[in-house]
Amino acid sequence: MSVQHDPVNRHPVHRADFDQVMVPNYAPAGFIPVRGEGSRVWDQSGRELIDLTGGIAVNVLGHAHPALVKALTEQAGAMWHISNVFTNEPALRLAKKLVEATFADRVFFCNSGAEANEAAFKLARRVAFERFGEDKYEIIAATNSFHGRTLFTVNVGGQPKYSDGFGPKIQGITHVPYNDLEALKAAVSDKTCAIVLEPIQGEGGVLPGELAYLQGARALCDQHNALLVFDEVQSGMGRSGSLFAYQHYGVTPDVLSSAKSLGGGFPIGAMLTTEALAKHLAVGTHGTTYGGNPLACAVGEAVIDTINTPEVLDGVKAKHARFKARLEQMGERYGVFSQVRGLGLLIGAVLSEPWKGKAKVILDAAALEGVMVLQAGPDVVRFAPSLVIDDADIDLGLDRLERAIASLTQG
């Protein structure tokens, strides 16, 4: 396929421009993707790559999915923004569908996972304050967790490398090892307002929660009048093979955050909760300019309509098996992976001892062979592709990955 060239009036830009005009908080790849279709992208030179990153678990239906393009363009011709002084039809339709599909009765829309988590954590503290008084504000989260980059969410996240160096830490946040129920029991008290967990740790290495651990967290919250908050920003919207991972486990939270795949590439976040808890966010207690934006919600509705079907969700489980079998074969053949873990199409290939710390090396070598993969820390190669990726693209992408690994082992 040929690359579509820029219209005449656009100034040509190159990767070198990044280093001149952008804040240096990212280190992007040396090539610039310019077009995508399904699970393939093309860069400025016209080179084709297989995309197994899904925009970091965002492009849940790949690139330029017809249902999403149609929803966005139709809404763009009708209304872009109206503000929360008014409501709008796409927001109401999407909220109804999320409520119908989950434990939740109420939805708060925002623009990102960090904002969804910010709302969840503020809600937890507000509920505890109004029901039990100002001393019940402590939040327990997991080490190696990731919940966003705002000051509150980065402090709840259990990775000091992201939270250090920005002044005093937010008080009342404790971190305990993930999947360690005894540590959780030791940390919880009547001052705890919330236990915050990812059902599958994403950035922390694609580590699924153990059923007994998540059940234990639920019981501890009930015992101590605390809220169980599940961060499903990365694990949600079909990625686990269930619409949300909590449904896979059968453990129901009080509050759930969603983003990433919710918009299929269009920025949107949502906090889901019950009617009884939602009433604590009365008029004026929280807000956002763009939350519930008609464009975002129209796309979100097309996403949920497309993926919340037995065909797609069953397909995710079948594709998981295909990925896992092939990655385990590679692990054995080249001695590169010690374990392949995850749920659905959120998969982590854990690097073996000799390869520890080299996830970025593999990622770069893969890109040279024409396949885009991710890392989850320095020791895990992560895959979060489109949920509707063709089996042929899985096979071709993993062929290219294997070539990259073979060249590294031989080199």
UniProtKB/TrEMBL annotation:
Its cofactor is pyridoxal 5'-phosphate. Binds 1 pyridoxal phosphate per subunit. The keyword Cytoplasm applies. HAMAP family: ArgD_aminotrans_3 (MF_01107). May also have succinyldiaminopimelate aminotransferase activity, thus carrying out the corresponding step in lysine biosynthesis. Homodimer. The keyword Cytoplasm applies. N(2)-acetyl-L-ornithine binds at R149, T288. This is Acetylornithine aminotransferase. Pyridoxal 5'-phosphate binds at G113, A114, F146, D231, E232, V233, Q234, T289. Belongs to the class-III pyridoxal-phosphate-dependent aminotransferase family. ArgD subfamily. Pathway: Amino-acid biosynthesis; L-arginine biosynthesis; N(2)-acetyl-L-ornithine from L-glutamate: step 4/4. SUPFAM superfamilies: PLP-dependent transferases. InterPro entries: Ac/SucOrn_transaminase_bac, AcOrn/SuccOrn_fam, Aminotrans_3, Aminotrans_3_PPA_site, Class-III_PLP-dep_AT, PyrdxlP-dep_Trfase, PyrdxlP-dep_Trfase_major, PyrdxlP-dep_Trfase_small. Its EC number is 2.6.1.11. GO terms for molecular function: transaminase activity. PROSITE patterns: AA_TRANSFER_CLASS_3 (PS00600). It comes from Pseudomonas cuatrocienegasensis. The modification N6-(pyridoxal phosphate)lysine is found at K260. It is found in: Cytoplasm. Pfam families: Aminotran_3. It catalyses: N(2)-acetyl-L-ornithine + 2-oxoglutarate = N-acetyl-L-glutamate 5-semialdehyde + L-glutamate. Keywords: Amino-acid biosynthesis, Aminotransferase, Arginine biosynthesis, Cytoplasm, Pyridoxal phosphate, Transferase. Gene3D superfamilies: Aspartate Aminotransferase, domain 1, Type I PLP-dependent aspartate aminotransferase-like (Major domain).
